[in-house]
Specification:
The chain has 191 residues and is α/β, with parallel strands linked by helices. It has a single domain, classed as Alpha-Beta Complex (Spore Coat Polysaccharide Biosynthesis Protein SpsA, Chain A), CATH 3.90.550. Helices cover 34% and strands 21% of the residues. It has a seven-stranded mixed sheet, sandwiched between helices. Strand 5 and strand 6 form a beta hairpin. Helix 1 packs across helix 2. The chain is globular.
Length: 191
């Protein structure tokens, strides 16, 4: 079965990306950081063990952007909150194991992604917890439909995001990975 790694990216325009970080270091600086972080992350995570798909936003602009590598397939994130967009991406990928990450996790390596796919050999879903109560990775085994209600009633961008998501999939076999930090603020950047 195919393994697919979805990386959620936004066009790196000042005021559109990393706005909480931008309040600390300026919107141009935050945009610059995101663009270079994303480029480095994509280069680091290219691996023959999985196919990378870029989930782009905004849809039309992201699909034709020259910022992202031209050889990687792209899918429009579409409308909705983060959970709706993540659910859409997970459901639309080919059958097999699918992992989805954001582009703002400097510490992620191919071995983290490989462990996530390995965990999906036993679990229905896998999560990579973040120290702030959220998560840097969500994965699902796509031999069956995603659990109904996944990502419902999740308080996004809070310390409850992972707990709320886990509560949305009762009875699902879940594996948890290493804790990694995403970058939302200047304190995260320094850490």
């Amino acid at each position: 079965m195919q393994r697919t790694l979805v990386i959620m990216v936004k066009e790196p325009r000042p005021g559109r990306v990393k706005t909480r970080l931008g309040r600390d270091i300026g919107m141009v600086g935050a945009s610059w950081w995101f663009r270079h972080q994303t480029r480095t992350l994509i280069r680091r995570l290219r691996d023959p063990r999985w196919q990378i798909v870029l989930a782009v936003s905004p849809d039309r602009e992201g699909l034709i952007s020259r910022v992202w590598p031209a050889d990687l397939p792209r899918a429009a994130q579409g409308r909705g909150d983060l959970g709706q967009r993540m659910g859409r991406m997970l459901r639309s990928m080919p059958k097999g194991a699918v992992c989805l990450i954001g582009a703002d996790i400097p510490g992620i390596t191919p071995s983290h992604i490989a462990r996530a796919f390995k965990a999906l050999g036993q679990a229905q879903m896998v999560f990579g917890p973040a120290p702030d109560g959220g998560y840097w990775l969500v994965g699902a085994q796509r031999y069956a439909a995603l659990p109904r209600g996944v990502f419902d009633n999740v308080r996004w961008s809070t310390e409850y995001a992972l707990a709320d998501t886990l509560a949305s999939v009762p009875g699902c076999r879940v594996a948890l990975l290493d804790h990694l930090r995403d970058v939302d603020t200047v304190a995260d950047l320094k850490a």
